[in-house]
Amino acid sequence: MTLHFLREMDRLNARLIEMGNKVEEQVSMAFMAVIQQDEAAARRVIRGDVEVDNEEIQMEEECLKLLALYQPVANDLRLIIAILKINTDLERIGDHAKNMAEAAIRLSASTAVEIPESMHVIYKQAKLMLRKTLLAFIETDRELAEKVLEMDDEVDTLCRAELPDQIEFIKNHPADAGQRLILLLVCRQLERIGDHASNIAEDVIYLLSGDIIRHGENAAMKSH
Amino acid sequence: MNTVYSMNDVATTAALIDVNATAAVSLSSVSASGLTAKNVNVYYADSQALHDVSIDIYSKQITALIGPSGCGKSTFLRCLNRMNDVVDGCRVTGSIALDGMDIYAPEVDVVELRSRIGMVFQKPNPFPKTVFENIAYGPKIHGLVEHRTELEECVVTSLQKAGLFEEVKDRLHQPATGLSGGQQQRLCIARAIAINPQVLLMDEPCSALDPIATSKIEDLMWELKENYSIIIVTHSMQQAARVSQRTGFFHLGDLVEVGTTENIFQNPVESRTRDYITGRFG
Q: What sign does the CA torsion over B259, B93, B29, B64 have?
């Protein structure tokens, strides 16, 4: 069983990394579509999300097959569980990229809007979180995963700060209210991408140590 | 205490027949401390089979011993009711205590010891007698029952505890060898518990059985652990994971790691344990 199982696991691992790269690309393309209000690029992202969704289902089926056929334990079991969960988070990140692309299409229908610098910062942070969390998985690096968790608070703070700024802008420029609400929606997508990157970081920590660190220090669920 | 015992001179004829039937009568009160092994070494002539094995067997729990062939798990199991006494050249050092009593102390009656620590073997081994006589033999020869009705009650209760009564109630007086393999194994378990042991040792009790019979034995073990401490040697890691609360992993005569079954199978501490349970070797 071992050799065959290990090969299957390697393949699954590689597919997850590939899916991570695809999702990362989707996020970048979606935000670029927002910046440039580029409808064609946005539609490419929406089409790309179908591939991500299909891949998610195939990955899940593959994980369930391995669980049923090999009944893995210990680190092998944790790896499959982590892959199952990361797979779901990646698919959700793909959905947020798609939501941004839809926002880009709506923006492209009106007059051009300049994206505030603060949103570029949020995007860079969320994107960096995603990159680092995938690297933490690939390199099995707990420290890096912990850094990603720290970064999530920064993204949340930046997103919270965006709301009063945009409200102020809408007060002064009521004609642009629609555009600004769409930008707030984009901001919300970036914040959620950061949350999912954090979930993946938690899964990496679980994979490496067996510790379930979800819900902070007060959580009753600790794996040992 | 680190006594050296020579086994050649303490081999008993009782050990040569089924130990479940060689019951002594006086049963000490069950203590929560159960069975404890400290620094147990076993030698077969010049070859050392076990190295400093220490483990506490918890009362009313199932402890599974796993490891590759030749790792020493069965050797250790056989130390626990002195089955190794009958092996020429076998020498045991260290201490094994049942409720604080050193089971290798010279004054210990091996026959009585084996009535407190029963054993079920890999291959079902019913006596060539009827179902009833198989169960009745132990309690009868050791005077655990006084009247026929008491004996009948003991037989029925033991068969019920072993989950076998409904299947054999109409053929209690037919040969036990006519039962299926799974039924024979449950009969052996019934025979073991008929003399009310404190600990049950099971040496790969399901390896000769089909999945359905295996499942029945596993269900039975779950029920029996309410009243007995059970130690099972198994080659099936899935079985160890399914039935036991604690698991010990043996490798090359070392008890590498022992802990809750949950921890051993989810997050073992030792790399040798991890490599074995994930199939990297063995």
A: positive
Class of domain B4-277: alpha beta
Q: Given an 8 Å threshold on Cβ–Cβ distance, is A74 in contact with B274?
A: yes
**Testing the interface with A: which of B239, B266, B269, B272 to mutate, by most A Cβ within 10 A?**
B266
pTM of the predicted structure, to 2 decimals: 0.78
For position A130, which CATH number holds?
A: 1.20.58.220
pLDDT tens-digit readout, B53-65: 999 999 999 999 9
Q: Which domain holds residue A25?
A: 2-209
ipTM over 0.85: no
Chosen from A73, A81, A206, A209 to mutate, greatest number of chain B CBs within 10 A: A73
The residues of A whose Cβ lies within 8 A of any Cβ of B are 1-2, 5, 71-78, 209-210, 223-224
Domain count, chain A: 1
B78-106 in b/e form (b: 16+ CB < 10 A) is bbbbbbbbbbeebbbbbbbbbbeeebbee
